[in-house]
Amino acid sequence: MLSAVLEGIERPLFRAAVALSAAIAAVSGCAHQAKGSSRLGEARQLELIDTLPAFAASLRESVKDFPDGPMLAWQAYEREHSALLDAAGAREEDPGDHQLRKLCVGPEAVLSLLDGFEAKAPRELERLSADLSSKLGGVPRMAVAFAALRSERSFFRGLEDGKPLLVVNARKPELSRPEARQVLFARELFGQLHREREPDSASLSPLARRLFREGAALLAVRQLVPRAEEHLLLGVSEGSLPQLRARQALAAKELLAVLDSGRESESGRFFDPEVKDPLIPSGAGLYLADRLFQRLAGELGSALRPLKLSSAEFVPSARRHLLEMASGR
Length: 329
Description:
By secondary structure, the protein is α/β, with parallel strands linked by helices. It is 61% helix and 9% strand.
């Protein structure tokens, strides 16, 4: 009898505590900057915004009020960090909270993923930023946020106060692998550094620009995460690699034919996994970009020199190598 009475008191108290937490966060407006934020790199250019420790503690406490507690805790967390998440478009529509309800059925599984991520990811990001500075000469000005999202996507990009922002979905099982996390961090950090050093040029078509950016990032990741398996590096299944190799010449020929096209759709044919094309296997754009920059590294006798090419220097070199790849060489 007494336990039932206490339970009846605890549930409203828990809901009140969650509501109060959300109200405080809403008043502060910038809660993510006040706590869980640190600066990385010699110039302190890289900001890490880690929302996970506080959320994991709240979610763990909420299990005592199952099944309502986890839902309330997650919703309060989203309200607290709404400005941060919305800056990257990381709060996708979830009619009737369907996806959230699925996640909150097993909060222990979510906590296991968050705890595993949090145990290593901050140090991995710090180490990669140091390696980026020492090996490739700099660290980008950007913010990286570790978050728990309803979405099935692994990451989102956006801008926060004019600064590039990467929001990483720490609850994704794919990111429980150290190599997968490191590839993501390295690719995004160098990608932003490359854009700072070589701003987008109107002289490049959408397809050429994507080839330029992705190829440089992949070559950088190979240096920063040398043990990463090829399928992780390219973001494809291991079983798809033989098909990509077998159709390299055909894909290179198709890419060369539309390299200067001003249509965004041509970039999508090669780089958007949602676009299906009978001639272009999924992952072909990244595969060709990777092969192209490896060939450039061999030609220039350095893995660093291709990363310093200007867009004007890149196009004629890319055209020459794609022609060779299209002919099977």
